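Morning, I've got a small favour to ask if you have a moment. The fold is given in discrete form, as structure tokens running alongside the sequence. I'd be grateful if you could look everything over and explain what you see. No rush at all, and the record is pasted right below.
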Amino acid sequence: MPAIMLPWKVFIVSLFYCNSISATYHRRRGLFPSALRVKRGTASLVNPIFQNSLKDVNLLFEILLAGLQFEDEHGLFSLNDEELASLRQTHKLEVICEDVLPKTLPEVRRLTFALVKGASALRREDFERVVLTLVYVAQQMAQASTTHQRDAWAETFTSLYKAIKQDLTL
């Protein structure tokens, strides 16, 4: 009798494994779907990640302090510091900011909804992108021309902040 049950146990375990892989894929695809597309003709920039070491974390902090700017509603990336802007690692950050991050209010709201819906901790690259999205939203909030736009961006900023805070406490 136990030998007959073994194939069923293997089948059940396989089913749960496939389900967890599928759920992970859809969650990853759901937060930043544009990260999984080929960008600028190079396969190395599919799903780009800026922070791979402590040195990269310090560089990102330095870039943020130097004044990372999003020029317009298309999220064109610019840095005031030419030395930082010329670094190869900064090119990855440019691709992330221009091609991966959500730029419109509905896209950012979709991201916040997905963050609230997902109860697990964010992966490193998703956390990085959510923080950069928070920076983008803060700049959009400051540059908003009407009170209604400013309030909408402020609400989204608060939602993103709460999602990051929740992730840090998991």
Summary: Strands lie at 68-70, 77-79. The first strand starts at residue 68 and ends at 70. Helices lie at 2-31, 54-66, 82-85, 88-100, 105-117, 124-143, 147-169.
